[in-house]
Known about the structure:
Elements: H1 3-21, H2 23-30, E1 40-41, E2 44-48, H3 58-78, H4 83-95, H5 103-114, H6 118-130, E3 132-140, E4 146-154, E5 160-161, E6 166-167, H7 168-173, E7 177-184, E8 187-195, E9 203-206, E10 210-216, H8 225-232, H9 240-250, H10 254-263, E11 270-275, E12 282-287, E13 292-297, E14 306-309, H11 325-335, H12 342-348, E15 359-366, E16 371-376
Parallel strand pairs: 2-7
Antiparallel strand pairs: 1-16, 3-4, 3-14, 4-15, 5-6, 7-8, 8-9, 9-10, 10-11, 11-12, 12-13, 15-16
Helix pairs in contact: 3-5, 4-6, 5-6, 9-10
The structure holds 2-acetamido-2-deoxy-beta-D-glucopyranose (6 copies).
Subcellular location: Lysosome; Secreted
InterPro entries: Acid_ceramidase-like, Acid_ceramidase_N, CBAH/NAAA_C
EC number: 3.5.1.23
Amino acid sequence: MTFSHLRSWSQTIWxxxxxxxxxxxxxxxxxxxxxxxxRGAVGWYTVDLDLPPGKRWTAxxxxxxxxxxxxxxxxxxxxxxxxxxELVDITLPLMxxxxxNPFGDEIKGIAxxxxxxxxxxxxxxIFYEVFTVCTSVVAEDNKGNLxxxxxxxxxxxxxxxxxxxxxxxxxxxxxxxxxxxxxxNNQTVFKSTNFAGYVGMLTGIKPxxxxxxxxxxxxxxxxxxxxxxxxxxxxxGMWMSFLTRSVLENATSYEEAxxxxxxxxxxxxxxxxxxxxxxxxxxxxxxxxLLSIDLxxxxxxxxxxxVLETNYDHWKEPLFLDDRRTPAMRCMNQTTQxxxxxxxxxxxxxxxxxxNKLTTYTTLMQVSEGKLESYIRDCPNPCMxx
Length: 386
Ligand SMILES: *[C@@H]1O[C@H](CO)[C@@H](O)[C@H](O)[C@H]1NC(C)=O
Ligand SMILES: *[C@@H]1O[C@H](CO)[C@@H](O)[C@H](O)[C@H]1NC(C)=O
Ligand SMILES: *[C@@H]1O[C@H](CO)[C@@H](O)[C@H](O)[C@H]1NC(C)=O
Ligand SMILES: *[C@@H]1O[C@H](CO)[C@@H](O)[C@H](O)[C@H]1NC(C)=O
Ligand SMILES: *[C@@H]1O[C@H](CO)[C@@H](O)[C@H](O)[C@H]1NC(C)=O
Ligand SMILES: *[C@@H]1O[C@H](CO)[C@@H](O)[C@H](O)[C@H]1NC(C)=O
């Protein structure tokens, strides 16, 4: 069978799939109660930025200690023995001091409170940078409100539980999903959906100013060389999710966020999906390690009322085995700009395979209301592994 055979075969299969399960369509016929489709709303914790970095995570980690430990043991099971163990036990703990502030001290604080060896907490923080696949979308409604949604999919290839038809790590991550309210002077600076134990940001909102998510970009030109270089001692790039954290914490406008995300040198390629607080302010920044190689913005004049990113460059076809983009766009198109809202965006993000066995949470944000809400997800069978 040739590649193009495979390709048209897979498109046919997906074509059938889409018609069967586009939730937005089903909704019109059956009007599902909104509440039955998610497992649970996510709890809130405050992170006080006025505390020294080593103390900021104490309350959260004390609460989630057992789950963080379980996950860390599991992650260990997937790390092959020998060289890597040496890396985790000897090299990574030394590297924590080379991390920029406040990240190194925050990670040390998490290790101290959880009782997990420092190297493992560092590894845990690196893991999310490397194995995350997701879907992000920013849309503008008819009134000029910007809405930003994302599914966070994690745990690919890290152990499949045959009995439960689920990814082992993805399941263990779900209890770690938390919403965080970062405060300074007792006032919210930004909010985020995160995994307890992780100090970088993958999903966040600066209320009334901007919303931001990061998706992984698999790329042959650059790849993980930067991460290897960093481990080996050449450390002139920034961790991707440390940059998003820093932008959420310290950027004060959409424009500032955009230029920092586009111009800061990174350790690996990434997609940043950014929404602002005014009409037209929504974009996908496609990054190589060094710079922004493409910017796709909402453009109402061209009829582009939303931008949507999975894990493939928007100007190229997605990998045929992993096309979450086409079904997600089809559902956005069916929703129409007139009907886009947090609720309909949740429906789009509940459409398989946009929702799949890797999906740990869905987050919805509305910048004008300063609102972030997230849901832990289960994908009922039949459901694609990714
Ligand atoms: C698999 O399912 C069983 C029961 O349904 C549960 O006890 C077990 O914890 C699950 N395993 C995982 C890894 O989620
Ligand atoms: C912080 O703000 C909350 C309400 O927003 C208030 O109840 C509390 O007293 C404030 N704490 C301090 C120390 O100002
Ligand atoms: C944000 O800025 C403050 C003040 O310059 C700095 O201390 C802090 O480390 C910055 N935060 C991040 C995450 O970079
Ligand atoms: C939108 O963001 C800008 C900063 O970029 C801020 O000055 C302005 O007040 C914000 N608008 C609203 C309505 O919050
Ligand atoms: C969705 O609509 C856009 C704009 O009209 C179009 O370019 C795109 O091909 C459509 N995608 C799907 C999957 O229907
Ligand atoms: C938009 O929503 C309204 C009310 O829920 C519905 O009647 C209408 O058919 C929807 N329009 C489209 C284009 O889906």
